[in-house]
Amino acid sequence: MVVIGLGRFGTSIALELARRGTEVLAIDSRAKTVQALSGQITHIATADATDIEALRQLGVQDFYRAVVAIGSDLEASILTASLLVELEIDDIWAKAVSQQHGRILSRLGVHHVVLPEHDMGERVAHLVSGRMLDY
Ligand code: ATP
């Protein structure tokens, strides 16, 4: 599994998968971020994921599944997702920061779009309303 973008969301995915024994290739464009995580993830690299040659050199095309965990930089998120589609990754996941962002990602060919704040808000609402029945 390839995890691109090691903010809070991407780091959490990469570390949890690594803990479960999944082979993870983690990529971030910030050397400091990569350095800070290098002891915890076996395959980790500093690279600009909007550069298809960089992705090819890292062997991203050999992975079945990838997740784009870049959020606030829309351009980087969209470009990276489109390159993963171009590399014919079978199962692409991507984080979106808004419904519109999510729609663009889906149209590009991303298979699963996740809206962390929105999705977690819904889950909390379910949990809270479940509790309210108890009182
Ligand atoms: P979170 O909420 O998960 O902390 P965020 O939405 O604030 O994340 P961003 O800051 O946009 O996320 O990006 C997450 C990570 O993606 C950052 O560590 C950033 O360095 C990395 N990133 C941004 N652009 C690229 C790129 N072109 N290639 C690789 N990594 C990138």
TrEMBL record:
Example GO molecular function: monoatomic cation transmembrane transporter activity
One Gene Ontology biological process: potassium ion transport
Domain of life: Bacteria
Protein's name according to its UniProt entry: Potassium transporter
Upper taxonomic lineage: Bacteria, Bacillati, Actinomycetota, Actinomycetes, Streptosporangiales
Full-sequence portion shown in this chain: 1 to 135 of 214
